[in-house]
Amino acid sequence: MATRGTDCQDACPLSCALEAGADLIPEFSAVYHKKDGQPVPVHVTIVVLRDERGQMLGALELLSPREPELGFFLQGVSPVAARLREEVRDLAAVDDTVIIVGEEPARYDVAWSIHRAAGLDDSLFRHWRADDERELPWPPGTVYIEVDGHKPPFPVDGERGWRILAGTDRTEDFAREDGIRLLVLPSLAEREEDLPWMLRSWVSRLSGGRVKVAPDALDRLIGLAMRESLTDVRRTLVAAVARAGDQLEVSDLGGGDPGSLPAMDEMIASEDPLMTMEARILEELLKRSNWKMQEVANRLGISRVTLWRKLREHGICKDG
Q1: Helices 104-117 & 79-92, crossing angle to 10 degrees?
Q2: Any idea what the Cα angle at residue 204 is, between residues 199 and 209, rounded to 5°?
Q3: Residues 18 and 103 in one domain
Q4: What is the pLDDT of residues 136-157, one digit of tens each?
């Protein structure tokens, strides 16, 4: 594979291995770029060659393709799913601002998929609020912003070098904007054939790959998605995955109200019901995992740093 010169100039794995004096650097993930700038996610292994006296003769850099994990909304076997995956990979190869139109959980998931398809590390994906005044850190990556029918608000003094993705449920105010691409997501009615794959993938991501889905529970979730919305499914899954063992059962989905949690009336009556619910879920996950932070972060689909920030916001700490 021919790559652009900056890949070798900025951080050549081969040079790093030689400078470190290592004989072998086992497989690790990296992103190279073709000469036209298109990102190529790869696995890299470095092998240093030496003679019988231990003198270095040279080194080999072994590359193999790496297929990035894509989000739940891109899973499935239908032609609609295949076209959506192709669109996402095309968008990952450019730096344009992308407006993703669809239901909130789906557009966030697709934004994350565009970021992953570009081969970037998860730590460089930031969910940014319009009122957030913090500067974005270095190195730059992807910023996802929820917008309400207006031009995406860029983070203060932080937009330089960061790719902007924005989510909305309308297209009218963006149709004639230059330099902005629209990605209109298919409806759940168009994705009915793909729902089993989508929902199993969503549960796997929320649980860090630990939880499978029982067939009857999957049927219940498919019915909920078709009757209600992905927002309702997400609310149900966050609670259900927190309850589940190795397999998510119908009983984990709750009784008559699939999204119910214990002490729901108490949480609704609190000053900030959403914050109270989030704190309860965090406390329960931490308790069940014996405070294994990475495991909890994986189950929630967030980074460890984000988990620590949420714990500080809620004042949650381990006893002792």
Answers
A1: 60
A2: 165
A3: no
A4: 777 788 989 888 655 655 555 4
